[in-house]
Amino acid sequence: MDRACTDYDPSSRMSFSPSEDEDYSSLQSPSPYSTGALTSPAQTPEKCGEEKKKRRGRNRVKNEAVLHTIKKTRRVKANDRERNRMHNLNSALDELRGILPCFPDDTKLTKIETLRLAHNYIWALSETLRLADQTKAKTQVELVQPGYMSPAAPPSPGSDAGSWMSTASPSSSSSSSFSASTSNPSSPAMSEDCYYGHTESLFSLHSIPQNFMHSACFVQYQ
DNA sequence: TAGGCCATCTGGTCCT
DNA sequence: AGGACCAGATGGCCTA
């Protein structure tokens, strides 16, 4: 888990722009040796040069330590932001799980299952509305023309739901490949009570076959 | 024990 | 310049 914290290697190269190094140079604390106070007038030019070399060496070590600290704190901050970002993403996924009709208490949908089910659920709801509109339009025609016989009445609940799936699958509106498979072992069983609770009113109001929505939500990516 | 899922770290790139 | 976003890497946990 905390691999990077424990394995942090200060010698490893991190790509920082030159400007950051310039920033760093501006952050250098003034060296006590740079004031000239330690340079005695009695020192020879040779001794002066050696002293300068020593100072530069000491400064370089100190600068590297400061640079290391700056890099480390930036990394820690970035890690923290990234962690927060992922937590927010997971929170949103949890909210989505709560909204989806298939949400058994004992099992938790994985991330990918959540997204796929949400996709299918939206599609199924759209189809429900479309069918509801169709049914409504036909009813109005029958009211205007009492003897009118609907040429293609929607199938009654329990009728050939498979044909509905084959003619109105999400693949018609999406480039993704779909199948009506329910064989994914990682998918939790659909809770029908929970599922129909969300769409019950729609079904009763518009005579939408319930098994249509039920099977529609089972449609999965492959 | 292999495989799936997940959290976290990390460095690169994009955006504001 | 700093933050957001992304994808790859890694290791832990769980289950069949």
Describe this structure as you would to a colleague.
By secondary structure, the chain is mainly α. It has seven helices and two strands, in the order H-H-H-H-H-E-H-H-E. It has helices at about 5, 20-25, 45-100, 110-145, 160-165, 190-205, 210-220, and strands spanning about 180, 220. The chain has a two-stranded antiparallel sheet with strand order 1-2. The chain is rod-shaped. Residues about 1-45 and about 150-215 have low confidence and may be disordered. The protein binds a DNA duplex (16 and 16 nucleotides) through helix 1, helix 2 and helix 3.
Low-confidence stretches: 1-43, 149-213
Order of helices and strands: HHHHHEHHE
Radius of gyration: 35 Å
> What is the CA–CA distance across the termini?
31 Å
Overall geometric form: rod-shaped
Give the overall pLDDT as a whole number.
58
Structural class: mainly alpha
How much helix, percentage-wise, in residues?
A: 55-70%
The strand count comes to: 2
Going across the biggest sheet, name each strand in turn.
Answer: 1-2
**Percentage of β-strand residues:** under 5%
Main sheet characteristics: 2 strands, antiparallel
Helix run count: 7
Short description:
The protein has helices spanning 3-6, 18-27, 45-99, 111-144, 161-167, 192-206, 210-218, and strands at residues 178-179, 220-221.
Summary keywords:
single chain; 222 residues; mainly alpha; two-stranded antiparallel sheet; 7 helices; 2 strands; 60% helix; rod-shaped; disordered N terminus; DNA-binding
